[in-house]
Amino acid sequence: MKNILVTGSKGQLGIALQAVSSRFPGFTLIPAGRDDLDISDADAISDYFSSHDFDAVVNCAAYTEVDKAETEEDAAFLLNFQAPLLLAEAALAKGCMFIHLSTDYVFDGRSSRPYTEDAETSPQTIYGASKLRGEAAVLGTNPGAIVLRTSWLYSQNGTNFALRMQELMKEKESLNVVFDQTGTPTYAPDLAVAIFTILSHPAPEGGIYHFSNEGVATWYDFAVAIKELTGAACKLQPVTSEQYPTAAMRPAYSVLNKGKIKAAFGLEIPYWKDSLAVCLGK
């Protein structure tokens, strides 16, 4: 039996890990929300790590307010860089495995081919810069750690595109949805299964891995799929990014190449529309 500390346990991925854990009977999760452990406090981390028994840490905690980060740089870097660094150091000292979550926002979005793990990074936002700095801190401190980059995360919980679209489609007769940003939706429980698969591996190689569901979509495609699955009457209008301005620039293209993680861990990754149907209970 392995004990797994899950930070950020009340977020989408933390909840998903707990939801799928029954499928992996060899593990016991130790969920830690912000009230349980202040991951920005080195002394709090030291005390928690010395008073709890666990074999691995999965860091799901992060500052994820992409637009707010443009004016809250210190808060973004505290949670996305300094806190992961402290956790990586503590995990190394304790001799336990460390998995850290990152994002497609580390790329500039100017590619036209799926990004591999060794592709050049060039974040265009404070959020992306803070996450990239966190990646470097984690792997620079703890080379055996695993950094998992993912994209467009959604689930039945929290704040995400799938839930927001369902709400808006009930409230409005029409919606404008961006059609010139391309990526892949990721269903949080599928990512959780991937994490348990990595945790089950006898000797996983440290480094960066990419995970999202299979396939490619625009936000407009994603919205259309939600509309079709739910039978909503709302009319969807495709618009450009210029017509829907945001404080932080979104990558125009952020499809992730998943060849490395599939080869390393024998993963079979579901197609994004199939997982969306599961999420919506269809």
TrEMBL record:
MF-aspect GO terms: dTDP-4-dehydrorhamnose reductase activity
Entry EC no(s): 1.1.1.133
Keywords for this protein: NADP, Oxidoreductase
One Pfam family, short name: RmlD_sub_bind
Keyword Transmembrane (UniProt): no
Listed pathway(s): Carbohydrate biosynthesis; dTDP-L-rhamnose biosynthesis
Keyword check for Oxidoreductase: yes
Enzymatic class: oxidoreductase
Function of the molecule: Catalyzes the reduction of dTDP-6-deoxy-L-lyxo-4-hexulose to yield dTDP-L-rhamnose.
SUPFAM superfamilies: NAD(P)-binding Rossmann-fold domains
Highest rank taxon of the organism: Bacteria
Alphabetical list of InterPro entries matching this protein: dTDP_dehydrorham_reduct (IPR005913), NAD(P)-bd_dom_sf (IPR036291), RmlD-like-bd (IPR029903)
Name of this chain's protein: dTDP-4-dehydrorhamnose reductase
NCBIfam families in alphabetical order: rmlD
Catalytic activity reported: dTDP-beta-L-rhamnose + NADP(+) = dTDP-4-dehydro-beta-L-rhamnose + NADPH + H(+)
CDD domains, A to Z: dTDP_HR_like_SDR_e (cd05254)
Entry similarity comment: Belongs to the dTDP-4-dehydrorhamnose reductase family.
Transmembrane segments: none
Residue ranges constituting the RmlD-like substrate binding domain according to the UniProt record: 3-280
